[in-house]
From TrEMBL:
Keyword Glycoprotein in annotation: no
UniProtKB keywords: FAD, Flavoprotein, Oxidoreductase, Signal
InterPro entries per record: FAD-dep_OxRdtase_2_FAD-bd (IPR003953), FAD-oxidoreductase_2 (IPR050315), FAD/NAD-bd_sf (IPR036188), Succ_DH/fumarate_Rdtase_cat_sf (IPR027477)
Keyword Signal among UniProt keywords: yes
Ranges for domain FAD-dependent oxidoreductase 2 FAD-binding: 37-467
Source domain of life: Bacteria
Cofactor(s) needed: FAD
Source organism (scientific name): Sutterella massiliensis
Signal peptide location: 1-22
Entry-linked Gene3D superfamilies: FAD/NAD(P)-binding domain, Succinate dehydrogenase/fumarate reductase flavoprotein, catalytic domain
Record protein name field: FAD-dependent oxidoreductase
């Protein structure tokens, strides 16, 4: 199956596929019965890893993907996987990159979580075991799957060289992390492995439900492709359908602050909570306090996003709310949560960059970008109190002179004034890359009931079960690490159980 090169085209293809199946009653379609040892539901990073791992353990595997393309959110991601003590790092002569070192970065980063999260998250023991397993996953991808890595380098937040980016992906201008959509190369190499192993990946074929036997154990799946319906007998099923970033119903129930922005998520359009629902129907129990993987703050007109994004991302920028006041230390790694919690939010821009000013002058819609020759005039154009905005920006520019941000304590290195009129404000909204939530699993990645007993034959990975690894902030490199690692482990355990090993 070809991985589409253009993200927009891939999204469109997925939407077309979903629409083509909408309204189809599977019961009216011809029935075909199939058998497998392991069925994998979803062909994103988690599912592809699960299928490869299960096949490598000797199982007969079938993969179902509801969209027309494979890869899911993993294909659109940068592609860099975090790991310490990997073979790739040893080859590069790295000596200060250990699993424990990255675990500390992960746990320390979680201290920046948005307020109100469940204090039990992240589960330190789960983070520890997952971080150690990341190393095995990176080595497995390289040695077993044949996926080549570039020389390890830092993530965007700096530090040691923990980022394992695809060798085929261009090096980003920053020299850190990975290039946009570099994840497609990982998916490509997993697909090549599955092709050689003879594992079919059926696209445009959503799984409708799980098949349970009289004891409540999973015995297969039901699926259809708009032309035929399938009943697949299997001894194990791995749910790898992603999260619920594009399910308005689930978002309104679980993370209502983000419900208005469902359509703006950069997660795959297939992330509608299907696997989570199937797991619950089979007896699984959801984690509480679901949240989102926040990534960017985007303009309502995407091309304007670059006008308030610098080489330091948002660290030297200023954001204000509907009161005309700053509401966050812009030095944080992600600003999506603070932005989502405002009635409205804007990024402030001045005319010091002529190209940005010219681009903003082209916008005539004040609901997207406003302009003013003074701070009060800008506030009026934005629909916020002009006096408050003037006070906010006067205080901020004074902080830039003194090097002391009394409001939020932003480091002096990122205190850069906004002094050249005319001034602009770009309306911004939060943009997510996925969700944190799903159903509870044990250390074998088996879905468990409320009493902790496993639903026999049912496994889950990735965003179907990722909640306990975070509080309320995402740490770069961990999303793909969890996807490929949980998929690898779940696939192997599913195969062993199905084959009676």
């Amino acid at each position: 199956m070809k991985i589409f090169e253009k993200t927009a085209f891939a999204f469109a293809a997925g939407i077309v596929a979903a629409c083509a199946q909408a309204g189809v009653d599977p019961a009216t379609l011809p029935l075909e019965q199939l058998t497998a040892d392991v069925v994998v539901v979803g062909a994103g990073g988690t599912g592809m890893a699960a299928a490869a791992s299960a096949a490598g353990a000797g199982a007969k595997v079938i993969v179902f993907e509801k969209l027309a393309m494979i890869g899911g959110s993993s294909a659109f991601a940068g592609g860099a996987i975090a790991a310490g003590g990997s073979n790739a790092q040893a080859k590069a002569g790295e000596k200060d990159t250990t699993p424990e070192g990255f675990m500390k970065i992960w746990l320390d980063d979680q201290k920046r979580s948005y307020k109100g999260g469940n204090p039990a998250y992240p589960d330190e023991q789960l983070v520890r075991s997952m971080t150690i397993a990341f190393t095995d996953t990176v080595n497995w991808l390289e040695s077993e799957i044949g996926h080549p890595f570039a020389k390890p380098r830092p993530f965007g937040y700096g530090g040691p060289n923990y980022a394992h980016a695809p060798a085929e992906s261009p090096v980003p201008a920053s020299g850190r992390g990975s290039s946009p959509a570099g994840g497609r190369f990982v998916i490509k190499n997993l697909k090549l492995y599955l092709d050689k192993a003879g594992v079919p990946v059926r696209t445009s074929t959503p799984v409708d439900s799980l098949i349970l036997d009289k004891s409540g154990a999973v015995a297969g799946v039901r699926a259809h492709d708009g032309k035929n319906r399938y009943e697949v007998s299997a001894k194990a099923v791995v749910l790898a359908t992603g999260g619920f970033a594009h399910s308005r119903e689930m978002m309104e129930k679980l993370v209502p602050a983000y419900a208005p922005y469902v359509d703006k998520s950069v997660a795959t359009v297939g992330a509608t909570g299907d696997g989570i629902r199937m797991a619950v129907d089979a007896g699984g129990v959801m984690y509480d306090d679901a949240w989102v993987i926040g990534l960017y703050v985007s303009s309502l007109d995407p091309k304007l996003s670059k006008t308030y994004t610098s080489k330091d991302k948002y660290k030297d920028r200023v954001f204000v709310n509907e009161k005309g006041e700053r509401f966050v230390n812009e030095d944080l790694p992600y600003l999506t949560d603070p932005v989502a919690m405002q009635g409205a939010a804007w990024a402030i821009v001045d005319s010091s960059n002529a190209k940005n000013a010219a681009l903003l002058n082209e916008c005539k819609d004040p609901k997207i970008a406003a302009k003013g020759n003074t701070w009060r005039e800008l506030g009026e154009a934005m629909g916020v109190p002009g006096e408050a905005l003037e006070r906010t920006m006067t205080e901020y520019n004074k902080a830039c002179e003194t090097g002391v941000d009394k409001t939020f304590g932003k480091p002096a290195a990122y205190l850069k004034p906004f002094a050249k009129a005319p001034f602009y404000a770009v309306r911004v909204i939060p943009q997510t890359g996925g969700t944190m939530g799903g159903v509870k699993v044990n250390d074998r990645f088996e879905v468990v009931r409320a009493d902790g007993t496993p639903v026999k034959g049912l496994y889950a990975g990735g965003e179907v079960m990722n909640r306990p690894y975070y509080n309320r902030v995402y740490t770069s490199g961990t999303g793909l690490g969890i996807a490929y690692t949980s998929g690898r482990i779940a696939g192997e355990n599913a195969a062993r159980a199905a084959l009676g090993k």
